[in-house]
From TrEMBL:
<dbReference type="InterPro" id="IPR003593">
    <property type="entry name" value="AAA+_ATPase"/>
</dbReference>
<keyword id="KW-0029">Amino-acid transport</keyword>
<dbReference type="Pfam" id="PF00005">
    <property type="entry name" value="ABC_tran"/>
</dbReference>
<dbReference type="InterPro" id="IPR017871">
    <property type="entry name" value="ABC_transporter-like_CS"/>
</dbReference>
<dbReference type="InterPro" id="IPR052156">
    <property type="entry name" value="BCAA_Transport_ATP-bd_LivF"/>
</dbReference>
<dbReference type="GO" id="GO:0005524">
    <property type="term" value="F:ATP binding"/>
</dbReference>
<keyword id="KW-0067">ATP-binding</keyword>
<comment type="similarity">
    <text>Belongs to the ABC transporter superfamily.</text>
</comment>
<dbReference type="InterPro" id="IPR003439">
    <property type="entry name" value="ABC_transporter-like_ATP-bd"/>
</dbReference>
<feature type="domain" description="ABC transporter">
    <location>
        <begin position="5"/>
        <end position="238"/>
    </location>
</feature>
<dbReference type="GO" id="GO:0015807">
    <property type="term" value="P:L-amino acid transport"/>
</dbReference>
<dbReference type="GO" id="GO:0015658">
    <property type="term" value="F:branched-chain amino acid transmembrane transporter activity"/>
</dbReference>
<keyword id="KW-0813">Transport</keyword>
<protein>
    <submittedName>
        <fullName>ABC transporter ATP-binding protein</fullName>
    </submittedName>
</protein>
<keyword id="KW-0472">Membrane</keyword>
<keyword id="KW-1003">Cell membrane</keyword>
<dbReference type="InterPro" id="IPR027417">
    <property type="entry name" value="P-loop_NTPase"/>
</dbReference>
Amino acid sequence: MSALLTLQGVHTHVGAYHILHGVDLTVPVGEVTMLLGRNGAGKTSTLRTLMGLWTASRGTVTFKGEDITHLPTPDIAARGIAYVPETMGIFGELSVAENLLLAARSARRMADLDAARLDWLFSLFPALKTFWHHPAGKLSGGQKQMVAIARALVEPRELLVIDEPSKGLAPAIVANLISALRELKATRTTVLLVEQNFRVAAELGDSVAVMDDGRVVHRGAMAELIEDGSLQQRLLGLALGAHQ
């Protein structure tokens, strides 16, 4: 598969702190790439750097063959990259509908939203339709996460970047989220997904990169990591079989 996004030797400094130490990462077109690692390994920092929220001090970020390393965040987003941060970034006082409208670059009014695409989003996340006119801030954590992902998908995007969508959610809600993301995966949407929940990673990932101490220390097929308990233990400090 050809690469949609590539990070080569990316270093990031935040103030006096050297956060990323030469990250090499490839995201193939049409696949779900999992970015795994222990807490503090540099996963979120990698996403913030590729989105331009933090500036790489060295190395390059390439998207569809274009160097986007030093572009402002709005310009990166305009190239077709949607970002769902760990905090979700929901506008709590706005309705679900208004949250989605804000993310739709081609729409100024609700009537301008693509009806067919909304129906598709409602099929992925039925709660969106139920709470369409409700303040987003009053939704449950799982429902807010669905709003955040749907907002990123309200218009076609080349790449969807999601940071820990299952964090803090009840197991039943995580199961629903996995189901929705599996349907999204079936559309061949390219996704870069950070997760701490290995079950989610195992269900969704095609390829995997594991980070430690600000660099990628393992790259390969997700299926291989799933089958190798000793590799899971060495890279992540866990074995999938012990958590099923």
